[in-house]
Design brief:
A hairpin with a 2-residue loop joins strand 3 and strand 4. The two termini are 37 Å apart. This protein is globular. With 268 residues, it is of the alpha+beta class. Helix content is 44%, strand content 18%.
Length: 268
């Protein structure tokens, strides 16, 4: 975690050059921060002139997309939250996958996640909470890097070579734990194994004491690439246990992929 609360990949240098693209990058930077950032935090990461950034933030606050408290820190505004709620409530993919998530949760008793690949991140779009007392603190709508999460690696493992190469070329590695991949070569070896097995592991790579097994979901044209996982604390979930859950996770992923093709089809 960075001292200013912004994620290590937060930057607008690789974003669109237009006004809207830069404003959206600033908005994303605030929304994905671990804690509400100040103007100086955003300025240090954005690479934009002070005056330009000040105008963008002022406009986002005026439009209700951001809010600024008495401590001068920026947070997501109510209008943005309203948009997010509407987007989640109308998400057809979540509806298609929901019964498979519930079934997998019934089989394992642990937390089940559904995530969609977006660039170099996995966006968590749904979750069924563990029945255990100690649970995951993940939230729907949050994003995590693809290179250190089971969902991310599962999704990467099925990408066509050209898209995989493009995605790997955009990665900026950050050490989260002692097990985090820090190079493309190391990650590719893991992806090769995941491709052969049909599922991927998170061996405490994003968070210490957290493990998961995940399998890829995709449609015929790879317009949708996603994943489903079972996650739990390392003290309760051994690697042997994850191996035992691998096939049910794969079956759930394949069932969702089939349902996506049948119920949503092309052009969704």
């Amino acid at each position: 975690m960075e001292r200013d609360g912004l994620p290590p990949h937060a930057t607008t240098e690789n974003s669109g050059t237009g006004t809207l693209g830069k404003a959206l990058s600033v908005l994303e930077m605030v929304v994905t921060a671990d804690r509400p950032p100040r103007f100086s935090d955003i300025l240090a990461r954005s690479g934009q002139p002070r005056g330009t950034l000040h105008r963008q933030l002022s406009h986002l606050v005026e439009e209700g997309m951001l809010t600024q408290g008495r401590d001068l820190c920026y947070e997501p505004g109510l209008r943005l939250l309203k948009f997010a709620y509407k987007a989640w409530s109308k998400n057809q993919f979540r509806a298609v996958a929901a019964p498979h998530l519930r079934k997998l949760h019934e089989e394992t008793g642990e937390t089940v996640h559904l995530g969609v690949l977006r660039g170099t991140e996995i966006i968590y779009v749904d979750k069924v909470e563990s029945r255990q007392t100690v649970r995951m603190e993940s939230q729907i709508g949050n994003a995590s890097p693809v290179y250190c999460t089971g969902l991310g690696k599962a999704a990467l493992s099925v990408l066509p070579e050209d898209r995989l190469g493009e995605t790997l070329g955009r990665l900026i590695f950050h050490r989260f734990t002692a097990n985090t991949h820090l190079s493309v070569a190391s990650l590719k070896r893991d992806l090769d194994e995941a491709r052969l097995r049909g599922y991927a592991f998170d061996r405490e790579e994003h968070e210490t004491e957290i493990r998961c097994v995940a399998a890829p979901i995709h449609d015929a044209g790879f317009d949708l690439v996603a994943g489903i996982s079972v996650t739990g604390p390392a003290y309760r979930v051994t690697m042997e246990q994850l191996e035992g859950w691998a096939q049910p996770v794969r079956q759930a992923a394949m069932a969702i992929s089939e349902d996506v093709e049948v119920r949503l089809g092309p052009g969704r």
